[in-house]
């Protein structure tokens, strides 16, 4: 059975032309990208490394990692988003290998091929997140880093990430997130452990609605980043 939700693919495909518009629905992704990038680079030192970005969308994180000197491959199943990523790569002169392929299929094709694998803001959009975690682990070289980011599942996350962000502040289109698909850190760390990944660091990501600034912190109640490493 394919691990894809066609409704989710269609949702992002309809917005594909806005990926690089920093005042569009993707503004939050542009604003948190420096935090994600620094978190990844601080742990994995990506310059010169072979990096895979799973669920790359329009290429925001993929391009930023390439600009830090990584050799980046980006994969996604939303063809319109990938086309935008490819065009932006050509325009910016930042070479990235973009492919429309399921992560599970790529894992069967290229096991233990990447120094770093990133899967950011994707797990909450697929029917079987554990399958994605396993595939990411398979794609990483022994000793390689695998990074995830997603949303915690609790009342606070629902209030802030769904009601607050989508209905009150209008930071995201309504229906962007489905609360039942959010993952507790304990659940994601269990999935990682079962896939042969050891938890290295867990960090929260917060937003101050007054200053409109995002920052990394110790509060993992809503958004969080997880750094894991495949056993050598």
Automatic annotation (TrEMBL):
One GO MF term attached to the UniProt entry: 3-demethylubiquinol 3-O-methyltransferase activity
Catalytic activity entry: a 3-(all-trans-polyprenyl)benzene-1,2-diol + S-adenosyl-L-methionine = a 2-methoxy-6-(all-trans-polyprenyl)phenol + S-adenosyl-L-homocysteine + H(+); a 3-demethylubiquinol + S-adenosyl-L-methionine = a ubiquinol + S-adenosyl-L-homocysteine + H(+)
Organism superkingdom: Bacteria
Binding site for S-adenosyl-L-methionine: 36, 55, 76, 120
Pfam families documented for this protein: Methyltransf_23
Metabolic or biological pathway, per its Swiss-Prot or TrEMBL entry: Cofactor biosynthesis; ubiquinone biosynthesis
E.C. number: 2.1.1.222, 2.1.1.64
Family the UniProt entry places it in: Belongs to the methyltransferase superfamily. UbiG/COQ3 family.
Function: O-methyltransferase that catalyzes the 2 O-methylation steps in the ubiquinone biosynthetic pathway.
Protein name, as recorded: Ubiquinone biosynthesis O-methyltransferase
